[in-house]
């Protein structure tokens, strides 16, 4: 009746010749699902620093609306791609361990129903990677992990429990992964301790500092990383956005200078997406409450689009 009225929150400009990336998200109906699944894991109570990363899943979804589905560089259009959005896992209001248990159980249940899906997981702080990988692995056999991060996240559990500083130590000590099948890229000066570097080396973890990223080049490092993981059945990519320099990602709780630039991260993700073995990716450690004009959430959305573009190129 009133052609100029729209539902509240949706009264924005629409162009009949342009599809926005957030339109690719289709809520799960409980039965049918596309080949690509997206899941929100809004946990940040386990962060050792102040963090509102629990707000990031919805902010990243919304940030997709800033971009179209068309890649002018490749000529690829994602307009016909459907992403099944499974929504967010409900966290316990006070119990971190219970929340992480819910994450592992939910991921295991969903992946068992749709084992062939490509998964994109939106954290949350980095503690969510441990239960997500634990649940995901049960359908995958032998797995490897490529971790983009300024930090090892191999802290001991005695001093603080299962925080966002411990996910990869937990995975190694629980036997979910072997240390030799963990590759860390972008480790930064003055962000780690000698004890955790030595622990990682004892466990066989492959480590690339940000200086090595600049010296060797990200293409050579990604190729070497996938060769390191050549004996696995599936690869999980974990993107801690604080791998980026604070100039690019101001919305990370643990910002710092000297990090990776955004184009290098995009190139790395694009390369990894070309491997069939890469079957899941998480994006963690974005706090929308301290971000600047959603810069960091927009970067996360761009990471997703780069990942999907290369996966579509393969199909």
Automatic annotation (TrEMBL):
Cofactor(s) needed: Mn(2+)
Residues reported to bind Mn(2+) 2: 126
Binding site for Mn(2+) 1: 149, 151, 153, 240, 242
Keywords: Histidine metabolism, Hydrolase, Manganese, Metal-binding
PANTHER family xrefs: ARGINASE/AGMATINASE, FORMIMIDOYLGLUTAMASE
Comment on bound cofactor: Binds 2 manganese ions per subunit.
One Gene Ontology molecular-function label: agmatinase activity
GO biological process: L-histidine catabolic process to glutamate and formamide; putrescine biosynthetic process from arginine, via agmatine
Primary enzyme class: hydrolase
Record-stated family: Belongs to the arginase family.
Protein EC: 3.5.3.8
InterPro entries per UniProt: HutG, Ureohydrolase, Ureohydrolase_dom_sf, Ureohydrolase_Mn_BS
Protein's name in the database: Formimidoylglutamase
